[in-house]
Structure formats: C-alpha cells, structure tokens
Amino acid sequence: MGVTVAVCPHGGLFLAGAFSCGPRWRCWEDWDELELVSQHHLVPVDGRAARVRMRRFPRRPPLPLLPVALRLFFRTADVESPSAITDAAKVVEGKLNGMGLNLLINNAGIYTPTASLETVDAEDMVRTYKTNAVGPMLMAQAFLPLLKKAAQDSKEKGLSCSKAAIINISTILGSIKKTPDSFFHPVISYRCSKAALNMLTMCQALTYKEAGILCVALHPGWVKTEMGTQEADLTVDTSVRGLLSVLPILSEKHSGTLLNWEGKAIPW
User: Which domains does the chain have, with CATH numbers?
Assistant: First the structure.
C-alpha cells in the first residue's frame, strides 16, 4: 500500500499513513492543535491516490496562512516494500539537516468489511497483516535512528511526543477483551492485524524506553468516514480534535498502552 508523507526540513512532527478520508486527512486543517505537540509541522496525504491529492494540494489553505517555520516536503513510500521505506527514511534524514525526528505516526491501514470467519481467505489475512502490522514495524525500524537522535538532543525529562515518540493508529477492534462488545461486525483480518499492532506497540515500548522513545497505540473511534460509514458515532472533527488533544498529554505512564481519542485506556 502506498503512503505519502510530508516532513518539515527543520525537524519536528512526522506523520505517515493513508489519509484519503476520515480524521487523518482532517488533521491537515488543525494547525493550532498541532502546535501543542511541536513547533514543526507537516501535512499528510493519501498514498493510495497520491497523484490526485498532490494535484489538489494547492487548493488547500495557502501556505502563507501557516506558521512561518513550516516548510513542507512530500515523500511517497510503499509500506509493504522494505526498500521503499528505507529509501524514504534516507531522503527524510537528508531533509532534516542533522536534526532528529520527534514524532512518527503510523496510520497506513487496509480493511475488508466482508471478512467473516466463513469468507476470509489466506490472501486477505496476509495482505492485511503486512499492511497493518508489518508496515508499522518496518517504518519504526527505518526511522528509529532519527527518533533516537531527537531523544538524545532533547532536554526534556521522561517520555513525550515533543521529545520522541511512535504513535500507532490502532482500534478497539484489536482489543481481545473488548471483542464480545463489537463482534456483530467480525472483520476478521482487520481485527487480527490490529491485535498484532497492539502487541507490536507494547514490544516497542519495552524495547525503546531506554532510548527515550514513547510508544503508544491510539484508537480514533468509530468515525463517519468512507470506512466507518455514516452509521458511525463520531464526526471527523470530534475524532481529530480528540486525538490532537491527547498527544500533548502522553507521558511515560502511557507508553505501551492503547488509548482512545479521549485519552481513556482500552484493555488489550
């Protein structure tokens, strides 16, 4: 699955994921909230339709309206391709001019709504796992040196998003304990891949703690998007503003946990 990322050449916030619809694309407009996390920003766009979004980009709010420090660089990578991810990391490293990367948000994901236990096949299971679990792992591996650099250069104590963090966008559907509450919608391949992502988040938290890197999984909620449908509970704005309000308050006590858009803990 393709993903287009954008990075400020002067360091700071870095997001990676598919943003064609839903709360992730809406983040582009919420600059004030992003300032709570870092003085540096970037804009995410949809990797699956990167050319379309790139053509539309000039019609978004003009750059002069954004913070003066903002400079954008777009890079497209395929999260299913280790070499593409490695290449993207090298390019981003060059754009950062010796600075570290404070925040990596892994959001690329795919979803098969009709995947029940009776209908899901091996191909769908493997494809979904590669994108939703293996992809975030490879992204973290590739950008780990830059995250470590940011943590080493930071004067902040403890763990935080403004120091160095990996945020994996997960879902309550990946919670084993909460499965009975939502199993009316099986989506087997999606659930299993997100459960794997949750485990990855915990493993990252335990491994990267000594390097000063915060690792958290976030559930954006059931949002009124193409994926969530209009039957969902949350509007895009509610989800996005919730997620952006959670990022600045994340600390060491949250590392290795799954939280929702309101900052409430979700059991594994």
Answer: 2-266 (3.40.50.720)
Residue 158's closest CA among 246, 254, 14, 242? Answer: 254
Confidence of residue 232 (pLDDT cuts 50, 70, 90): low
What is the pLDDT, as a whole number, of residue 226?
A: 63
pLDDT confidence tier of residue 261, bands split at 50, 70 and 90 = very high
User: Which of the four pLDDT bands, split at 50, 70 and 90, describes residue 117?
Assistant: very high
Tokens of 94: 């060059």
Structure tokens, 16: 């990676």
Asked if pLDDT for residue 67 goes beyond 80, the answer is no
What is the spatial distance between Cα 163 and Cα 157, in angstroms, rounded to a whole number?
Answer: 9
Query: What distances in angstroms separate CA 70 from CA 6, 101, 154, one per listed residue?
Result: 11, 15, 20
Q: Measured in Å, how far apart are the chain's first and last C-alpha atoms?
A: 27
Q: Which residues 6+ apart lie within 8 Å of 100 measured at CB?
A: 11, 146, 147, 148, 149, 150, 151, 152, 153, 154, 164
